[in-house]
UniProtKB/TrEMBL annotation:
<dbReference type="Pfam" id="PF00587">
    <property type="entry name" value="tRNA-synt_2b"/>
</dbReference>
<feature type="domain" description="Aminoacyl-transfer RNA synthetases class-II family profile">
    <location>
        <begin position="71"/>
        <end position="372"/>
    </location>
</feature>
<protein>
    <recommendedName>
        <fullName>proline--tRNA ligase</fullName>
        <ecNumber>6.1.1.15</ecNumber>
    </recommendedName>
</protein>
<dbReference type="InterPro" id="IPR002316">
    <property type="entry name" value="Pro-tRNA-ligase_IIa"/>
</dbReference>
<dbReference type="GO" id="GO:0006433">
    <property type="term" value="P:prolyl-tRNA aminoacylation"/>
</dbReference>
<dbReference type="GO" id="GO:0005524">
    <property type="term" value="F:ATP binding"/>
</dbReference>
<dbReference type="InterPro" id="IPR036621">
    <property type="entry name" value="Anticodon-bd_dom_sf"/>
</dbReference>
<keyword id="KW-0648">Protein biosynthesis</keyword>
<dbReference type="InterPro" id="IPR004499">
    <property type="entry name" value="Pro-tRNA-ligase_IIa_arc-type"/>
</dbReference>
<dbReference type="InterPro" id="IPR002314">
    <property type="entry name" value="aa-tRNA-synt_IIb"/>
</dbReference>
<dbReference type="Pfam" id="PF03129">
    <property type="entry name" value="HGTP_anticodon"/>
</dbReference>
<keyword id="KW-0436">Ligase</keyword>
<dbReference type="GO" id="GO:0005737">
    <property type="term" value="C:cytoplasm"/>
</dbReference>
<keyword id="KW-0067">ATP-binding</keyword>
<keyword id="KW-0547">Nucleotide-binding</keyword>
<dbReference type="InterPro" id="IPR006195">
    <property type="entry name" value="aa-tRNA-synth_II"/>
</dbReference>
<dbReference type="GO" id="GO:0004827">
    <property type="term" value="F:proline-tRNA ligase activity"/>
</dbReference>
Protein backbone atom coordinates (compact mmCIF):
# COMPACT_ATOMS: atom_id res chain seq x y z
CA UNK A 1 0.00 0.00 0.00
CA UNK A 2 1.08 3.60 -0.50
CA UNK A 3 2.11 5.90 2.32
CA UNK A 4 -0.82 7.33 4.25
CA UNK A 5 -0.47 10.98 3.21
CA UNK A 6 -2.35 14.21 2.86
CA UNK A 7 -1.49 17.27 0.81
CA UNK A 8 -0.60 20.75 1.95
CA UNK A 9 -0.21 23.73 -0.36
CA UNK A 10 3.08 25.57 -0.64
CA UNK A 11 3.93 29.00 -1.98
CA UNK A 12 5.77 27.67 -5.03
CA UNK A 13 2.71 25.80 -6.29
CA UNK A 14 4.12 22.36 -5.55
CA UNK A 15 2.66 19.74 -3.30
CA UNK A 16 4.19 18.98 0.07
CA UNK A 17 3.55 15.41 1.15
CA UNK A 18 2.91 14.92 4.87
CA UNK A 19 3.16 11.31 6.05
CA UNK A 20 0.64 10.73 8.78
CA UNK A 21 1.52 7.24 9.94
CA UNK A 22 3.60 4.30 9.01
CA UNK A 23 2.23 2.34 6.06
CA UNK A 24 -0.46 -0.09 7.22
CA UNK A 25 -3.55 -1.88 5.99
CA UNK A 26 -6.75 -0.11 6.87
CA UNK A 27 -7.96 3.41 7.64
CA UNK A 28 -6.49 5.18 10.67
CA UNK A 29 -8.69 8.30 10.73
CA UNK A 30 -12.32 8.42 11.76
CA UNK A 31 -14.85 9.87 9.36
CA UNK A 32 -16.68 11.70 12.13
CA UNK A 33 -13.52 13.04 13.79
CA UNK A 34 -11.29 14.28 10.97
CA UNK A 35 -13.28 14.16 7.76
CA UNK A 36 -10.60 15.69 5.52
CA UNK A 37 -7.81 13.32 6.53
CA UNK A 38 -10.21 10.36 6.45
CA UNK A 39 -11.25 11.27 2.91
CA UNK A 40 -7.65 11.60 1.65
CA UNK A 41 -6.61 8.38 3.32
CA UNK A 42 -9.51 6.41 1.84
CA UNK A 43 -8.73 7.63 -1.69
CA UNK A 44 -5.04 6.70 -1.47
CA UNK A 45 -5.33 3.40 0.41
CA UNK A 46 -8.16 2.14 -1.78
CA UNK A 47 -6.00 2.96 -4.83
CA UNK A 48 -8.44 5.47 -6.32
CA UNK A 49 -5.78 8.16 -6.69
CA UNK A 50 -2.08 8.79 -6.24
CA UNK A 51 -0.64 12.15 -5.28
CA UNK A 52 1.36 13.99 -7.93
CA UNK A 53 4.23 16.43 -7.47
CA UNK A 54 2.10 19.44 -8.48
CA UNK A 55 -0.34 20.68 -5.88
CA UNK A 56 -3.96 20.16 -6.83
CA UNK A 57 -3.18 17.62 -9.59
CA UNK A 58 -3.73 13.92 -9.04
CA UNK A 59 -3.22 10.60 -10.79
CA UNK A 60 -6.61 8.98 -11.19
CA UNK A 61 -6.04 5.26 -11.00
CA UNK A 62 -7.90 2.39 -12.62
CA UNK A 63 -10.17 1.79 -9.62
CA UNK A 64 -11.62 5.29 -10.05
CA UNK A 65 -11.42 5.48 -13.85
CA UNK A 66 -13.65 2.44 -14.12
CA UNK A 67 -16.35 4.32 -12.24
CA UNK A 68 -16.00 7.26 -14.62
CA UNK A 69 -16.05 4.99 -17.68
CA UNK A 70 -19.22 3.19 -16.56
CA UNK A 71 -21.05 6.49 -16.05
CA UNK A 72 -19.67 7.72 -19.35
CA UNK A 73 -20.98 4.62 -21.14
CA UNK A 74 -24.48 5.27 -19.80
CA UNK A 75 -24.43 9.00 -20.52
CA UNK A 76 -23.04 8.70 -24.04
CA UNK A 77 -25.79 6.30 -25.01
CA UNK A 78 -28.48 8.56 -23.62
CA UNK A 79 -27.26 11.77 -25.27
CA UNK A 80 -26.58 9.83 -28.48
CA UNK A 81 -30.27 8.91 -28.52
CA UNK A 82 -30.99 12.64 -28.16
CA UNK A 83 -28.98 13.38 -31.29
CA UNK A 84 -25.90 14.83 -29.61
CA UNK A 85 -22.71 14.53 -31.69
CA UNK A 86 -19.22 13.83 -30.36
CA UNK A 87 -16.42 16.30 -30.88
CA UNK A 88 -13.12 17.51 -29.42
CA UNK A 89 -11.90 21.10 -29.37
CA UNK A 90 -8.31 22.20 -28.72
CA UNK A 91 -6.95 22.59 -25.20
CA UNK A 92 -5.56 26.08 -25.83
CA UNK A 93 -7.39 29.39 -26.17
CA UNK A 94 -5.71 32.54 -27.45
CA UNK A 95 -5.78 35.52 -25.15
CA UNK A 96 -7.67 37.62 -27.67
CA UNK A 97 -10.45 35.03 -28.03
CA UNK A 98 -10.73 34.49 -24.28
CA UNK A 99 -11.04 38.23 -23.70
CA UNK A 100 -13.87 38.54 -26.20
CA UNK A 101 -16.29 37.45 -23.50
CA UNK A 102 -14.97 39.18 -20.39
CA UNK A 103 -18.25 38.95 -18.50
CA UNK A 104 -18.47 35.20 -18.92
CA UNK A 105 -14.83 34.55 -18.11
CA UNK A 106 -14.68 36.98 -15.16
CA UNK A 107 -15.42 34.25 -12.61
CA UNK A 108 -12.60 32.10 -13.98
CA UNK A 109 -10.05 34.84 -14.66
CA UNK A 110 -8.05 34.47 -11.43
CA UNK A 111 -7.81 30.72 -12.11
CA UNK A 112 -6.74 30.80 -15.77
CA UNK A 113 -3.39 29.09 -16.41
CA UNK A 114 -1.30 30.66 -19.18
CA UNK A 115 1.33 29.28 -21.54
CA UNK A 116 3.83 32.03 -22.38
CA UNK A 117 6.90 30.12 -23.60
CA UNK A 118 7.82 27.41 -26.08
CA UNK A 119 11.17 26.10 -24.97
CA UNK A 120 13.22 29.21 -24.24
CA UNK A 121 11.31 31.44 -26.64
CA UNK A 122 8.46 33.72 -25.64
CA UNK A 123 5.24 33.04 -27.52
CA UNK A 124 3.98 35.83 -29.73
CA UNK A 125 0.47 35.16 -28.48
CA UNK A 126 -0.23 34.10 -24.90
CA UNK A 127 -2.29 30.93 -24.71
CA UNK A 128 -4.75 30.04 -21.97
CA UNK A 129 -5.45 26.44 -21.00
CA UNK A 130 -9.21 26.13 -21.24
CA UNK A 131 -11.12 26.76 -17.99
CA UNK A 132 -14.32 26.12 -19.98
CA UNK A 133 -15.09 26.11 -23.71
CA UNK A 134 -17.82 28.57 -24.61
CA UNK A 135 -15.42 31.05 -26.19
CA UNK A 136 -13.67 28.20 -28.00
CA UNK A 137 -16.75 26.56 -29.46
CA UNK A 138 -19.22 29.34 -30.24
CA UNK A 139 -17.28 31.05 -33.05
CA UNK A 140 -17.63 27.75 -34.90
CA UNK A 141 -21.33 27.51 -34.14
CA UNK A 142 -21.56 30.80 -36.01
CA UNK A 143 -19.77 29.20 -38.95
CA UNK A 144 -21.73 25.94 -38.93
CA UNK A 145 -25.25 27.32 -38.41
CA UNK A 146 -26.67 29.09 -41.44
CA UNK A 147 -30.30 28.09 -41.83
CA UNK A 148 -33.15 26.34 -40.03
CA UNK A 149 -32.03 22.96 -41.31
CA UNK A 150 -28.76 23.27 -39.34
CA UNK A 151 -30.72 23.23 -36.08
CA UNK A 152 -30.75 21.95 -33.51
CA UNK A 153 -26.96 21.80 -33.22
CA UNK A 154 -25.92 19.51 -30.37
CA UNK A 155 -22.35 18.59 -29.46
CA UNK A 156 -20.56 17.10 -26.46
CA UNK A 157 -16.90 16.60 -25.61
CA UNK A 158 -15.16 14.64 -22.86
CA UNK A 159 -12.07 16.58 -21.85
CA UNK A 160 -9.95 18.04 -19.09
CA UNK A 161 -10.03 21.66 -17.95
CA UNK A 162 -7.66 23.64 -15.74
CA UNK A 163 -8.71 26.12 -13.08
CA UNK A 164 -5.74 27.16 -10.98
CA UNK A 165 -7.49 27.43 -7.63
CA UNK A 166 -5.53 28.77 -4.68
CA UNK A 167 -7.77 27.39 -1.96
CA UNK A 168 -6.81 24.12 -0.30
CA UNK A 169 -7.00 21.37 -2.94
CA UNK A 170 -9.05 18.23 -2.40
CA UNK A 171 -8.96 15.28 -4.83
CA UNK A 172 -11.99 15.17 -7.15
CA UNK A 173 -13.76 17.95 -5.25
CA UNK A 174 -11.41 20.89 -5.68
CA UNK A 175 -8.54 20.14 -8.05
CA UNK A 176 -6.64 22.31 -10.49
CA UNK A 177 -7.16 19.89 -13.35
CA UNK A 178 -10.32 17.85 -13.62
CA UNK A 179 -12.25 15.86 -16.20
CA UNK A 180 -15.78 16.38 -17.37
CA UNK A 181 -18.19 16.22 -20.23
CA UNK A 182 -19.46 19.51 -21.56
CA UNK A 183 -22.45 19.73 -23.83
CA UNK A 184 -23.24 22.77 -25.96
CA UNK A 185 -26.45 23.04 -27.94
CA UNK A 186 -28.28 25.57 -30.08
CA UNK A 187 -32.00 25.74 -30.93
CA UNK A 188 -34.33 27.80 -33.03
CA UNK A 189 -36.69 28.59 -30.13
CA UNK A 190 -36.54 29.15 -26.37
CA UNK A 191 -39.17 26.46 -25.85
CA UNK A 192 -36.89 23.81 -27.39
CA UNK A 193 -33.97 24.94 -25.26
CA UNK A 194 -36.04 24.87 -22.07
CA UNK A 195 -37.16 21.30 -22.75
CA UNK A 196 -33.56 20.13 -23.11
CA UNK A 197 -32.45 21.80 -19.86
CA UNK A 198 -34.88 19.63 -17.92
CA UNK A 199 -34.11 16.50 -19.96
CA UNK A 200 -30.42 16.82 -19.13
CA UNK A 201 -31.10 17.52 -15.44
CA UNK A 202 -33.19 14.36 -15.30
CA UNK A 203 -30.32 12.43 -16.86
CA UNK A 204 -27.94 13.80 -14.23
CA UNK A 205 -30.39 12.80 -11.52
CA UNK A 206 -30.36 9.26 -12.87
CA UNK A 207 -26.55 9.18 -12.87
CA UNK A 208 -26.33 10.33 -9.26
CA UNK A 209 -29.23 8.41 -7.78
CA UNK A 210 -29.13 5.24 -9.84
CA UNK A 211 -25.37 4.80 -10.09
CA UNK A 212 -23.43 6.47 -7.30
CA UNK A 213 -25.73 7.85 -4.59
CA UNK A 214 -28.15 5.00 -4.01
CA UNK A 215 -30.80 5.88 -1.40
CA UNK A 216 -29.36 9.38 -0.91
CA UNK A 217 -31.30 12.50 -1.81
CA UNK A 218 -30.04 14.94 -4.37
CA UNK A 219 -31.47 18.42 -4.75
CA UNK A 220 -32.42 19.80 -8.15
CA UNK A 221 -33.32 23.35 -9.07
CA UNK A 222 -33.84 24.68 -12.58
CA UNK A 223 -30.17 24.62 -13.51
CA UNK A 224 -28.25 22.60 -10.95
CA UNK A 225 -28.04 19.30 -9.13
CA UNK A 226 -26.49 19.23 -5.65
CA UNK A 227 -25.64 16.37 -3.31
CA UNK A 228 -25.79 16.80 0.47
CA UNK A 229 -22.75 15.64 2.48
CA UNK A 230 -23.93 14.78 6.01
CA UNK A 231 -20.47 14.97 7.62
CA UNK A 232 -19.90 18.55 6.48
CA UNK A 233 -23.50 19.74 6.48
CA UNK A 234 -22.99 21.21 3.04
CA UNK A 235 -24.22 20.61 -0.47
CA UNK A 236 -21.78 20.03 -3.32
CA UNK A 237 -22.63 21.02 -6.87
CA UNK A 238 -22.71 17.85 -8.89
CA UNK A 239 -23.96 18.89 -12.33
CA UNK A 240 -25.38 21.91 -14.14
CA UNK A 241 -27.69 22.45 -17.08
CA UNK A 242 -27.99 26.11 -18.11
CA UNK A 243 -30.22 27.84 -20.59
CA UNK A 244 -27.89 30.56 -21.86
CA UNK A 245 -30.69 32.24 -23.80
CA UNK A 246 -29.39 34.46 -26.59
CA UNK A 247 -26.66 35.98 -24.41
CA UNK A 248 -23.88 34.54 -26.54
CA UNK A 249 -25.54 34.32 -29.93
CA UNK A 250 -26.29 38.06 -30.00
CA UNK A 251 -22.71 39.05 -29.17
CA UNK A 252 -21.02 40.65 -32.16
CA UNK A 253 -18.02 38.34 -32.05
CA UNK A 254 -20.22 35.20 -32.01
CA UNK A 255 -23.34 36.31 -33.90
CA UNK A 256 -24.88 32.85 -34.11
CA UNK A 257 -27.99 33.10 -36.25
CA UNK A 258 -29.93 31.39 -38.99
CA UNK A 259 -31.90 32.86 -41.85
CA UNK A 260 -35.60 32.32 -42.40
CA UNK A 261 -37.85 33.05 -45.35
CA UNK A 262 -40.81 35.25 -44.42
CA UNK A 263 -43.86 35.75 -46.66
CA UNK A 264 -45.31 39.27 -46.49
CA UNK A 265 -47.77 40.86 -48.88
CA UNK A 266 -47.14 38.20 -51.43
CA UNK A 267 -43.40 38.75 -51.29
CA UNK A 268 -40.63 36.69 -49.74
CA UNK A 269 -37.92 38.30 -47.70
CA UNK A 270 -35.02 36.85 -45.73
CA UNK A 271 -34.64 37.58 -42.04
CA UNK A 272 -32.12 36.41 -39.43
CA UNK A 273 -32.89 34.96 -36.01
CA UNK A 274 -30.36 34.42 -33.22
CA UNK A 275 -30.29 30.93 -31.74
CA UNK A 276 -31.12 29.91 -28.17
CA UNK A 277 -28.32 28.05 -26.44
CA UNK A 278 -27.75 25.63 -23.57
CA UNK A 279 -24.64 24.31 -21.87
CA UNK A 280 -24.46 21.39 -19.45
CA UNK A 281 -21.76 19.44 -17.63
CA UNK A 282 -20.88 17.00 -14.87
CA UNK A 283 -17.36 16.11 -13.77
CA UNK A 284 -15.15 13.72 -11.82
CA UNK A 285 -16.29 15.63 -8.75
CA UNK A 286 -19.15 13.11 -8.76
CA UNK A 287 -16.67 10.39 -7.74
CA UNK A 288 -15.56 12.41 -4.73
CA UNK A 289 -19.19 12.95 -3.70
CA UNK A 290 -19.79 9.20 -3.86
CA UNK A 291 -16.79 8.48 -1.61
CA UNK A 292 -17.83 11.14 0.91
CA UNK A 293 -21.41 9.92 1.18
CA UNK A 294 -20.92 6.15 1.22
CA UNK A 295 -17.42 5.59 2.63
CA UNK A 296 -17.01 4.36 6.22
CA UNK A 297 -14.35 3.51 8.79
CA UNK A 298 -13.15 0.56 6.69
CA UNK A 299 -12.73 2.54 3.46
CA UNK A 300 -14.76 2.73 0.27
CA UNK A 301 -18.30 1.47 -0.13
CA UNK A 302 -18.91 1.20 -3.87
CA UNK A 303 -22.43 1.07 -5.32
CA UNK A 304 -22.62 -2.16 -7.36
CA UNK A 305 -23.36 -0.50 -10.70
CA UNK A 306 -20.05 1.37 -10.79
CA UNK A 307 -17.69 -1.10 -9.06
CA UNK A 308 -14.96 -2.54 -11.29
CA UNK A 309 -15.42 -5.83 -9.45
CA UNK A 310 -18.90 -6.31 -8.06
CA UNK A 311 -17.87 -9.58 -6.42
CA UNK A 312 -14.52 -10.84 -5.14
CA UNK A 313 -14.18 -14.56 -4.45
CA UNK A 314 -11.71 -15.49 -1.71
CA UNK A 315 -10.42 -19.03 -1.06
CA UNK A 316 -10.29 -19.99 2.63
CA UNK A 317 -8.06 -23.07 2.96
CA UNK A 318 -7.91 -24.69 6.40
CA UNK A 319 -5.34 -27.11 7.81
CA UNK A 320 -5.20 -30.24 5.68
CA UNK A 321 -7.90 -29.14 3.23
CA UNK A 322 -7.39 -29.72 -0.48
CA UNK A 323 -6.17 -26.23 -1.41
CA UNK A 324 -6.24 -26.84 -5.14
CA UNK A 325 -9.83 -28.03 -4.96
CA UNK A 326 -10.80 -24.82 -3.15
CA UNK A 327 -9.00 -22.65 -5.71
CA UNK A 328 -10.69 -24.55 -8.54
CA UNK A 329 -14.08 -23.94 -6.91
CA UNK A 330 -13.30 -20.22 -6.65
CA UNK A 331 -12.33 -20.03 -10.32
CA UNK A 332 -15.48 -21.92 -11.32
CA UNK A 333 -17.60 -19.54 -9.25
CA UNK A 334 -16.08 -16.51 -10.97
CA UNK A 335 -16.67 -18.10 -14.36
CA UNK A 336 -20.34 -18.70 -13.50
CA UNK A 337 -20.84 -15.14 -12.26
CA UNK A 338 -19.15 -13.58 -15.28
CA UNK A 339 -21.28 -15.66 -17.61
CA UNK A 340 -24.32 -14.10 -15.91
CA UNK A 341 -22.97 -10.60 -16.56
CA UNK A 342 -21.59 -10.00 -13.06
CA UNK A 343 -18.14 -8.41 -12.81
CA UNK A 344 -16.32 -10.88 -10.58
CA UNK A 345 -12.69 -11.66 -9.75
CA UNK A 346 -10.88 -14.30 -7.71
CA UNK A 347 -8.27 -13.42 -5.09
CA UNK A 348 -5.34 -15.70 -5.98
CA UNK A 349 -2.55 -14.37 -3.79
CA UNK A 350 -1.31 -17.04 -1.44
CA UNK A 351 1.05 -14.99 0.75
CA UNK A 352 -1.71 -13.21 2.68
CA UNK A 353 -4.15 -14.62 5.22
CA UNK A 354 -7.88 -14.68 4.40
CA UNK A 355 -8.46 -12.06 7.12
CA UNK A 356 -5.98 -9.68 5.50
CA UNK A 357 -7.71 -10.20 2.16
CA UNK A 358 -11.11 -9.44 3.70
CA UNK A 359 -9.80 -6.12 5.02
CA UNK A 360 -8.10 -5.29 1.73
CA UNK A 361 -11.21 -5.76 -0.40
CA UNK A 362 -13.41 -4.04 2.19
CA UNK A 363 -11.08 -1.05 1.99
CA UNK A 364 -11.49 -1.04 -1.81
CA UNK A 365 -15.26 -1.16 -1.41
CA UNK A 366 -16.13 -4.30 -3.42
CA UNK A 367 -19.90 -4.71 -2.90
CA UNK A 368 -19.93 -8.46 -2.23
CA UNK A 369 -17.34 -10.90 -0.91
CA UNK A 370 -17.71 -14.63 -1.45
CA UNK A 371 -15.72 -17.03 0.75
CA UNK A 372 -15.16 -20.69 -0.12
CA UNK A 373 -13.62 -23.08 2.39
CA UNK A 374 -13.61 -26.86 2.94
CA UNK A 375 -17.00 -26.88 4.69
CA UNK A 376 -18.51 -24.88 1.85
CA UNK A 377 -17.19 -27.42 -0.63
CA UNK A 378 -18.67 -30.26 1.41
CA UNK A 379 -22.08 -28.55 1.53
CA UNK A 380 -22.02 -27.35 -2.09
CA UNK A 381 -22.43 -23.75 -0.96
CA UNK A 382 -20.58 -20.45 -0.51
CA UNK A 383 -20.56 -17.77 2.18
CA UNK A 384 -21.40 -14.25 0.90
CA UNK A 385 -20.84 -11.01 2.82
CA UNK A 386 -22.22 -7.61 1.78
CA UNK A 387 -19.85 -4.66 2.04
CA UNK A 388 -22.46 -2.00 2.82
CA UNK A 389 -24.09 -3.61 5.86
CA UNK A 390 -21.93 -6.64 6.68
CA UNK A 391 -24.84 -9.07 6.32
CA UNK A 392 -23.68 -12.66 5.79
CA UNK A 393 -25.56 -15.38 3.96
CA UNK A 394 -24.92 -18.94 2.87
CA UNK A 395 -25.91 -19.60 -0.70
CA UNK A 396 -26.32 -22.85 -2.56
CA UNK A 397 -24.11 -23.07 -5.63
CA UNK A 398 -27.21 -23.98 -7.61
CA UNK A 399 -28.97 -20.67 -6.86
CA UNK A 400 -25.82 -18.56 -6.52
CA UNK A 401 -26.35 -16.24 -9.49
CA UNK A 402 -29.90 -15.35 -8.50
CA UNK A 403 -28.90 -14.66 -4.89
CA UNK A 404 -25.92 -12.54 -5.91
CA UNK A 405 -28.05 -10.44 -8.26
CA UNK A 406 -30.60 -9.94 -5.51
CA UNK A 407 -27.93 -9.04 -2.96
CA UNK A 408 -26.48 -6.45 -5.32
CA UNK A 409 -29.90 -5.19 -6.49
CA UNK A 410 -28.73 -5.76 -10.05
CA UNK A 411 -31.42 -8.02 -11.47
CA UNK A 412 -32.85 -5.70 -14.10
CA UNK A 413 -29.47 -4.18 -14.92
CA UNK A 414 -27.64 -7.40 -15.64
CA UNK A 415 -30.51 -9.11 -17.41
CA UNK A 416 -30.71 -6.18 -19.81
CA UNK A 417 -27.04 -6.63 -20.66
CA UNK A 418 -26.55 -2.86 -20.45
CA UNK A 419 -23.99 -1.14 -18.28
CA UNK A 420 -20.74 -3.03 -17.94
CA UNK A 421 -21.81 -6.06 -19.95
CA UNK A 422 -18.70 -5.78 -22.08
CA UNK A 423 -16.52 -5.84 -18.99
CA UNK A 424 -17.43 -9.34 -17.91
CA UNK A 425 -14.92 -10.82 -20.34
CA UNK A 426 -12.07 -8.86 -18.80
CA UNK A 427 -8.70 -10.57 -18.93
CA UNK A 428 -7.34 -8.37 -16.12
CA UNK A 429 -5.26 -10.16 -13.51
CA UNK A 430 -6.15 -9.93 -9.81
CA UNK A 431 -4.63 -7.01 -7.96
Amino acid sequence: MADNAVEESSSNGRRKKVVLKETRLGISHKKDEDFGKWYSEVLVNSEMIEYYDISGCYIIRDWAMMIWDIMKEFFEKEIGDMGVDKCMFPLFVSKSVLNKEKNHIAGFEPEVAWVTKAGKSDLEVELAIRPTSETVIYPYFSKWIRNRHDLPKKINQWCNVVRWEFSNPMPFIRSREFYWQEGHTAFATKEEADVEVLEILEMYRRIFQDFILKLVHVFIDYIMLQAFIPNTGRGIQGATSHCLGQNFSKKEFFDIKFHVEIEEDGKTRTDHVHVWQNSWAYSTRSIGVMVMVHGDEKGLVLPPKVAKWQVVVIPVPYRDANTQEIFDACSATVKTLRKAGIRAEVEKRDHYTPGWKYSYWEMKGVPLRIEIGPKDLANNQVRAVRRDNGVEMDSSVVSLVEQVLNALHLGSLQKSGHIGAGLTKSSSKPV
